[in-house]
Design brief:
The chain is of the alpha+beta class. The chain contains 12 helices and 20 strands.
Length: about 425
């Protein structure tokens, strides 16, 4: 099926992006990917919107990757969606039995009837043939959207009471158990995560997303809607990208808060580059990612292009490494994801042992958190983020949730790890309880 495309110039790209996402709320399926103009290498678009499913794939973990391979090969088109962390159960002998009040499918992808690709000062509309007659009308409706129209999208809200799934005291106890595993040699790094949640929650997902994005302005922000399921993400982290025969992974490990005082902020950034614990965390995960990529790479092609480089975001400074490899033309794109999933920065090392131990110590099923959101192109290229700094919402169950985690090594101090979690959670809490 060949899509019908139309390219138009934009006088005010930022205003058009705002109008476009407001207009999209009428559809049951929406995925918005926004780089926020952050200068992240290899990004192909400034923003993408996919709306209105032509076809869908919704799965639990058993057999999900094989189903995704067939779906991608059958559609031969852009497909958009997410992979939940619990797809680990489809690649290894693992399970997920913790509390799950969000009830998202483990995997969800859709082929959209309407696509919008934004680059600099232009947008390309790409519609399935059956919808081509709507291009002109849709453009008129989008550009006619005003700030006043946004008020029509707002829902009645009730005050939220954010609760911790794990108390601070319990967190300290559990972290000591993680350290015991490390000291015994069972693992040498783990990403231990905890959930914060609110019940009987009524929120306006679009408003919450926009406020979160305004605070964070991250390079891998996304807004996902599938009927009553919502993902509101301000992720700064790329999980994996494929461009032709090149595969790129950019794990984040190492965090420092920011300061409004330029001198103090520079000092915080400088100290991060010299912090032995933060650097050790990053290097451990780089080794894990190199090992993952070696499963699908041509011999000798795995390289570390950047090691522990500081990237600064509105909320935090982060250490990011860039690992690349080359793959054969015949390598199935879904196979690449399957062999490297979940992202090593969200598991620990050794990967399988860390996932097993975290499953026992954590009290919530991670679900989409720690998973990935993104797209695959008709030619098998793809780009996926890591779902962190994100709010998950089930409007039907009136349940809202966000989780945070941190890398635990032998040098970890429980109190400092807890404080780091609160720093990471700050933006999500702020937009929910304001």
């Amino acid at each position: 099926m060949k899509r019908v495309s139309k390219n138009i110039s934009l006088q005010n790209p930022q205003e058009f992006k705002h109008q476009l996402l407001s207009w999209a709320q009428q559809f049951d399926q929406v995925l918005w990917l926004d780089s926020n103009n952050y200068p992240m290498k290899n990004s192909q678009f400034e923003a993408i919107l996919a709306v209105d499913a032509y076809s869908e794939l919704s799965m639990q973990s058993n057999g999900a990757f094989e189903a995704l391979k067939k779906y991608q090969q059958t559609e031969v088109d852009y497909i958009f969606g997410y992979l939940s962390y619990d797809l680990k159960n489809d690649t290894e002998v693992l399970s997920s039995k913790n509390v799950d009040n969000l009830a998202f499918p483990d995997l969800y992808f859709f082929k959209a009837k309407r696509l919008f690709f934004i680059k600099k000062d232009s947008v390309t509309l790409s519609y399935v043939p059956s919808e081509k007659e709507n291009i002109g009308t849709d453009l008129e409706n989008i550009t006619a959207f005003s700030q006043e129209d946004d008020s029509l999208l707002k829902q009645a809200k009730a005050p939220l009471k954010i609760l911790a799934r794990i108390s601070k005291e319990a967190y300290h106890v559990k972290l000591q158990k993680v350290l015991n595993h490390i000291n015994r040699g069972d693992i040498y790094e783990a990403n231990f995560c905890q959930e914060f949640y609110a019940e009987n929650a009524r929120i306006n997902p679009l408003e919450v997303y926009r406020n979160l994005n305004k605070i964070s302005a991250s390079p891998f922000a996304s807004y996902f809607k599938s009927k009553h399921h919502f993902i509101l993400s301000a992720s700064p982290e790329r999980y994996i990208q494929k461009l032709g025969n090149t595969v790129i992974s950019q794990p984040i490990k190492g965090t420092a808060k920011r300061s409004s005082n330029p001198e103090e902020d520079f000092l915080l950034k400088t100290n991060l580059t010299k912090d032995p614990k933060e650097i050790a965390e990053n290097i451990m995960i780089v080794d894990l990612v190199r090992n993952d990529l070696s499963r699908i790479a041509t011999k000798g092609s795995v390289h570390v292009q950047e090691l522990c480089k500081v990237y600064s975001f509105k909320q935090v400074h982060q250490l990011i490494s860039t690992v690349t490899c080359t793959v054969d033309d015949t390598t199935d794109p879904v196979h690449i994801i399957q062999q490297t999933f979940p992202m090593g920065s969200m598991t620990g090392a050794p990967k399988i042992s860390a996932m097993k131990i975290m499953e026992k110590l954590e009290e919530s099923k991670r679900g989409v958190y720690s998973g990935a959101i993104g797209y695959m192109s008709p030619h098998g290229d793809f780009d996926f983020n890591v779902v962190i700094r994100s709010i998950l919402y089930n409007a039907q169950k009136k349940y809202v949730s966000y989780s945070v985690g941190g890398a635990i090594t032998a040098k970890s101090i429980p109190e400092k790890e807890y404080e780091e979690c609160l720093i990471k959670a700050m933006a999500m809490k702020k937009v929910l309880v304001k």
